[in-house]
């Protein structure tokens, strides 16, 4: 990997990490966090917004009706997933509600990390390429793509247990194709071997990021 240019007058190096479902984003992000990166997780924010009492629920009920909420008071994720995968217009409507919230909360968390002196911030944004989240108040300095063959994405996601093969395939079809993600990448980590190989690759990239971010401390050293 080439050297990473030092960001001009930024408090922290902002790296957006993306990849298709099952590519290994969460695994890679956890390894970066272990080494001292601050991780802002868009999926986790989205789950908070749609949990019982979540801030986005009133707008979701307004747009999709009371059926959008399950008996536990949270958004019925399985039902909404089926609805938005069946209809691109419905997907855009849900995204139009959630994305502005996610962008605001992500920016607030980034400021919190930066105020604690964290020098490398990782934004874990599964649909970075598909959504408008690149054009937020905090555009990333680097886009990191976790890449692996599609059959591995399917294998790993099925092994995780929550989804059937047909559901995983439908999700992959709705996501940006691999070539489109790779076209926007500044850095690529290939996750086609053992998880330990991915972590070793993360370590080498962390060194490059840390070298470009003034004041960063390697907690594993
Ligand atoms: P994503 O966040 O991109 O959906 P995860 O990091 O959650 O992907 O990985 C999907 C599943 O595959 C997880 O259960 C993870 O532990 C497993 N996994 C990730 N990378 C590897 C690998 N190189 N070898 C084997 N299993 C892996």
Structural topology:
Blueprint: E1 13-18, H1 25-34, E2 38-41, H2 42-50, H3 57-64, H4 77-86, H5 88-115, E3 120-124, E4 142-147, H6 150-160, H7 165-174, H8 178-183, E5 187-190, H9 195-212
Parallel strand pairs: 1-3, 1-4, 2-3, 4-5
Helix pairs in contact: 1-9, 2-5, 4-5, 6-7
Notable characteristics:
221 residues; alpha/beta; Rossmann fold; 9 helices; disordered C terminus; binds adenosine-5'-diphosphate
Query: Count of helices?
Result: 9
> What sort of overall outline do the alpha carbons produce when their principal axes are compared?
globular
Structure ligands: adenosine-5'-diphosphate
How does the major sheet shape up? 5 strands, parallel
Order of helices and strands: EHEHHHHEEHHHEH
- Under CATH at level 1, the class stands as Alpha Beta
What's the CATH H-level superfamily name? P-loop containing nucleotide triphosphate hydrolases
Strand tally:
5
Structurally, the number of domains stands at: 1
The percentage helix is 40-55%
CATH topology, anyone? Rossmann fold
Radius of gyration: 18 Å
**How do the strands line up in the largest sheet?**
2-3-1-4-5
| Global structural class | alpha/beta
The span between the termini is 21 Å
Strand content of the residues, in percent? 5-15%
CATH architecture: 3-Layer(aba) Sandwich
Q: What is the arithmetic mean of pLDDT?
A: 88
Contiguous runs where pLDDT drops below 50 for at least 5 residues: 216-221
